[in-house]
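the two lines:
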Amino acid sequence: MEAKQSVLIIGGGIAGIQASLDLASRGMKVYLVEKTPSIGGRMSQLDKTFPTMDCSMCILAPKMIECFRHPNITLLTYAEVQEVKGSAGNFRVKILKKPRFVDLEKCTGCGECAQHCPVEVPNEFDMGLGVRKAIYVPFPQAVPLKYTIDDENCVKCRLCQRMCKAGAINYDQPPETIDLNVGAIIVATGFELFDAQTRSEYGYGKYQNVLTSLEFERLLSASGPTGGHLLRLSDGRIPRRIAFIQCVGSRSLKGGVSYCSSACCVYATKEGVLIREHNPECEVYVFYNDLKVFGKGFQEFVNRAKNEWGVKYVRALPGEVVEDPKTGDLTIWYEDTTENVTKSMKADIVVLCPALVPRVTSKELAGILGLELDEFGFMKSRDPLFAPVDTNLPGIYICGYCQGPKDIPESVAQASGAAARAAEAIVAAGKEAH
Amino acid sequence: MAYEPRIVAFLCNWCSYMGANLAGTSRISYPPNIRIIRVMCSGRVDPIFVISAFEAGADGVLVCGCHPGDCHYVSGNLKAEKRIETTRKLVKLLGLGPERLRLEWISTSEGGKFAEVVTDFTQKLRKIGPSPLKSEANPKAKASLNVQEVIKKAIAETNVRYCLECGKCSGSCPISRLNEAYSPRRTVEKFLIGLENKVLPTADLWTCLTCFTCTERCPSDVKYPYFIRACRRVAPVDVKEELCAHRGIPMALSRIMTNPKIKQERMDWLPDGAEISEKGDLLYFVGCAPYLDVYFEDFNLGLIKIPQSVVKILDKVGIKPVILRNEKCCGHDLLWTGDFENFEKLAKVNAADFKETGAKKIVTACPEGYRTFKEDYPKFLENFDFEVLHISELLSELIDKGELKFDTKIARKVVYHDPCRLGRHMGVYEPPRKVLASLPGTELVEMERNRQNALCCGVSSWLSCNRYSKGVQIDRLREAKATGADLLVTACHKCQIHWKCVTSEKLPVDPGEVTMEMRDLSVLVAEALKLA
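prediction for all of em together
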């Protein structure tokens, strides 16, 4: 296909997937580059999505498969953008395909290798709560469903090679550099969590029963480390009270980021409802400062959580969480600002909702692409009002969380917007050439 | 006009006042230099009575009570004897001359003795000359300030307007947890909606420990302790004085030191053979240890060992520190209790004295002095450009250079408490730990709440010592004890005083849960160097 008719999409999360599908279905060639061994991104880690309570994987997996099967989409997983030259209509891109040490053509995804691998390491997909092997697929619905050897942890025992009936293991696989010529680029690199240990008063990293929301999401998920059983990690006990703490690092003029991460109030509500579904005897408290639930149907969702599911909201940001070393129970100290009384509350699990921040690597990527970043490291829009998906460079577009705080529906809408702008740019470049 | 001494006399109601009365009715003449204040018992005479009399310009203070054995309250006069002994030491430290304070036993029938005592005391005071504190100016005088403007400025400078009203401060505040009526959030709120009069004349303003826990955690970076400090400047003084522990003696001593004529005699603690210099690169600021050691002598904390240890350690590594013989208070307590005027006076005097020694570095073994010199002096003074070090920083530097070799094993399990002013105020968390960890045989353990999250020792600037602060103190000691450590080390002498104080009283918990051996960092280091 002609170079000008193709688009490079960086980041295989829901935004990248949506943009790929949009462009591919209008006949353009898409190269979807993903850093990890599978596309799916953050959404694949979620148990349910708000406000509809859809099973996240159930609505995402078909889109992932579509990406995989689409004749116009080439998936470049476990790959990173190394160099970008040229300009709109004619970008020359170098992509490094990291060696998986598994032949993608031969691997059938049977999993025999992982069964025999003796090395267990914390599972990134489960936010380190569970374990995976040194040869692994990140999660069962991974796309492509091909195994990857994690070179850092592999002990080179060659057991997997012996067990693989397809003969797919190749320890000598070299890294591969792919040169592409594309007409436009879309960046959709998403977010990561603010380091909750920075707010040491909440004891994250020190107390086993203080979790981040994404860890807790995995704990709730049927594909998670407990198989969907809501248990406390320190002692396997069924929790009787779970508290969420909002704005851990968000809306902070000091020791965090000053913006609102925009998704936390609603996902905490969602997780709260899920807890009540799992175990109606478990109380749920959400400590918040302002309930910023501004999306369509979100306020109604919160109302239902309060009235139908009995999720309790306390208007306070706690000052401190202290663990009883004997029981692992946590005491939360806060001032109930509606009653004007400083109180404490015992909880079995405390879930922190940390700020969502741009990927650390987005700075490097912005350097490669020549993109401007804002003070927080988000990709800068050319015009925040009228060109939100455009960047300082023509032909390069942005969508999803890497552009700014947003939720899934907004990311998807923005991805379609970025896809449309990319297509527009390619058409314009084509006309100029004639 | 020739100098005539003025004497303030505190006479006990039952014996001495009657004795004075007898002198009068018997028409025995004595010099008119005396102003009599009747007290129910000589035991009522608190050191602050004496110090305040001197501060107000008295040349001598006379305290008279019943003869031992005759006290109408059994032993009030014996208590008085002890108190006056302590007070005399303070008077001596201030350089006023211990003989300006006189204690006499005068019974109802001793009208003649009363007259003799007054005559003799007056003559002696005539010989000694006037008190250096005699002046027309009232040391407690405050600048007249526009309250509204001060508050407005404080709000602007401390980010108060950014308050989200999330209550994280109250949830963090050690006092709010015990006293639910107190909340930094609500205090700030009142100022913002113009209800400052609901705070300024109340105890709320003096409740804040200024421990910086709320500031450390506030998402909006509201600097609450600074806000409170600024507001304290315009608050009614009587409320403050009522809430000051030890009847405000520490502040009175500090105020007295603003007087340029004062010549203290504060160097008695200097160990034999210790080498110090008049001029040099490094100045060791001793701080209030000599005074606190006297005032809290009943606690047997050996606070004076702190400066002694520091000097010995410095001598050992070949540093002959400059020590000011007439060193003034750093002014920390005055500043944090809102007395900016006297603080500035002290700051100016200190800065001039420091400059004169040619010192480049100032070392303190006290977190309050450290904070004040490093943080506050540069803001209040122009060109205050000394390098300020806490002793733990200096020690950790010396250990790095290999200049400190420990030869004594301190086989102890040690827990370190972060003083607020060293930790959260100044961010010095690691140097003291490093020093402790390098002492041979020491096992260093941590309390549940440490570093940024360390709990305050319960009182700061001698304000609001009450059941809530006692509660905080007990909480902290329990936490220390729960670590299983057998030695509690801190780097602030005031922490030790407060803990010793709470454990000397009747405790609401099993004393075994809170009683711990305590040691100052410098003293422990000196022990490890066999210098103690």
